[in-house]
C-alpha cells in the first residue's frame, strides 16, 4: 500500500501518533506528580472508603492518555472499528516489545565512567537511576497492557452504540461518553492487577476503589475539558480531506 491518497496518509499520521503516545505514557508513567502542587493550590485531604489523606497524586502518563483516547475516537469516526482494534493490538505488542528491549538494556554491564555522574550538582549513580526509571515491575507492565486493551475495546464499542442512536450528530456525546466509560475501566483494571493481585503489595479492595475513584475523578474532568480539542482535530481533518471525502469515510466507517 502506498501513501499517495489523503486517506492513507491520514491513517499513517493518526496511527503513528496513537502508538507514540501510548508508548510514551508507559515510560513517563513511572513519575508520580501532585496535581495540587503543580497548580499551586492546597493539597486535598480526602477520606474515602476508610482510606485517609488521599489527594490527586497522578502518574505522568495522564499527560498523554487523553490524547490517545481522542485519537481512538477520531480513527473510529473515519476508519471504523477494525482499524482501531488492529492499532490497539499492534500498540499493545509494541509496548511489550519496548519493555523487553529496555529489560535487555538494563542487564548490559555499564561503563565505569558513565556510572558516577553529577546531575544538578548532586552525585548520581546513573545505572541505578536508569533501572529505577525504566525498570517497572512485571505486574505493572501486565496491568498497563491489559487495561489499555480492555479500555480500547470498551471505547470503540460504546462509541458505535451511541452513534447508532444519534447518527452523525452529537460527536461530543459518543466521543466523550465512550472515553469516560473506557477511562473508568482503565483506572481500576491497572490498579487491580498491579497492586491488588500483586503479592508484593496486595492492597485491600478499599484502597483499590478509593485510589481508582480519585484517579477517575481527575480523568473525568480532563476528558470533559478535552472535548473542544476533539472538535478542533475533527475540523482540521475535514478541511484536509474535503467535505465530500470526509462524509464518505465517516459513512463507510459506520458500516465496518
Topology:
Blueprint: H1 6-28, E1 32-34, H2 35-39, E2 46-48, E3 51-54, E4 57-59, H3 65-79, H4 81-106, H5 112-115, E5 116-119, E6 122-125, H6 126-134, H7 138-166, H8 171-196, H9 205-225, H10 227-241, H11 243-255
Antiparallel strand pairs: 1-4, 2-3, 5-6
Subcellular location: Cell membrane
Protein name: Probable queuosine precursor transporter
GO molecular function: transmembrane transporter activity
Task: Describe this protein's structure.
- One of its GO terms (molecular function) is transmembrane transporter activity.
- Involved in the import of queuosine (Q) precursors, required for Q precursor salvage.
- With 256 residues, the chain is mainly alpha-helical.
- It has one domain (6-255).
- The chain is built from eleven helices and six strands.
- The chain has helices at 6-28, 35-39, 65-79, 81-106, 112-115, 126-134, 138-166, 171-196, 205-225, 227-241, 243-255, and strands at 32-34, 46-48, 51-54, 57-59, 116-119, 122-125.
- The strands form three sheets. The protein has a two-stranded antiparallel ribbon. A two-stranded antiparallel sheet has the order 2-3.
- Helix 1 runs antiparallel to helix 3 (65-79), helix 3 (65-79) packs across helix 8 and helix 10 (227-241) crosses helix 11 (243-255).
- It is globular and about 60 Å long.
- It starts with 5 loop residues before the first helix and ends with a helix.
- The model has no long low-confidence stretch (mean pLDDT 88).
Amino acid at each position: 500500500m502506498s501513501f499517495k491518497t489523503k486517506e492513507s496518509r491520514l491513517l499513517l499520521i493518526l496511527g503513528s501518533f496513537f502508538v507514540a503516545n501510548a508508548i510514551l505514557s508507559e515510560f513517563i508513567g513511572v513519575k508520580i506528580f501532585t496535581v495540587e502542587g503543580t497548580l499551586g493550590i492546597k493539597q486535598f485531604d480526602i477520606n474515602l472508603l476508610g482510606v485517609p489523606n488521599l489527594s490527586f497524586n497522578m502518574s505522568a502518563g495522564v499527560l498523554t492518555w487523553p490524547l490517545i483516547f481522542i485519537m481512538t475516537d477520531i480513527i473510529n469516526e473515519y476508519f471504523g472499528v477494525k482499524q482501531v482494534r488492529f492499532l490497539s493490538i499492534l500498540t499493545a505488542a509494541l509496548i511489550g516489545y519496548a519493555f523487553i528491549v529496555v529489560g535487555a538494556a538494563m542487564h548490559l554491564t555499564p561503563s565505569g565512567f558513565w556510572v558516577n555522574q553529577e546531575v544538578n550538582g548532586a552525585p548520581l549513580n546513573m545505572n541505578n537511576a536508569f533501572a529505577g526509571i525504566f525498570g517497572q515491575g512485571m505486574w505493572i507492565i501486565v496491568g498497563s497492557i491489559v487495561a489499555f486493551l480492555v479500555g480500547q475495546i470498551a471505547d470503540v464499542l460504546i462509541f458505535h452504540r451511541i452513534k447508532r442512536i444519534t447518527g452523525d450528530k452529537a460527536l461530543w456525546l459518543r466521543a466523550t461518553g465512550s472515553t469516560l466509560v473506557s477511562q473508568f475501566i482503565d483506572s481500576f483494571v491497572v490498579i487491580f492487577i498491579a497492586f491488588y493481585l500483586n503479592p508484593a503489595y496486595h492492597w485491600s479492595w478499599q484502597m483499590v476503589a478509593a485510589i481508582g475513584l480519585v484517579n477517575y475523578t481527575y480523568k473525568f474532568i480532563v476528558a470533559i475539558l478535552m472535548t473542544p480539542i476533539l472538535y478542533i482535530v475533527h475540523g482540521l481533518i475535514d478541511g484536509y480531506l474535503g467535505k465530500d471525502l470526509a462524509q464518505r469515510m465517516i459513512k463507510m466507517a459506520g458500516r465496518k
